[in-house]
Write a structure and sequence with these properties.
8% strand, mainly alpha, 100 residues, single chain, three-stranded parallel beta sheet
Length: 100
Amino acid sequence: MIIHRDLISALRTALEGRKVIAVTPGPALCTAFGIDAWPAATDPDILEWSTLVEAHAPLAERKMMRPLMRYTSGSTGLQKACGGAGPRKDFEDVFRVSDT
């Protein structure tokens, strides 16, 4: 699961048992959404997306990947993903936890 670092503490229970890769929100995003940058930048046990990307060279030979639908709200907070069959069934717990 790739997730904004500032959301991890609220969803920690739902993320248990999953490989989590965090994206630290930048200054503009922190300002736009009132995110406290310090808590968002903490939790060294979780791998940082940018560190992972920078540590690997591009693939020399690209192979066909299984289908993937990315979801992003971008900086507007509005959903941009389209199509697909909806969320996986085991993600229902994530949505329930986020409502509490």
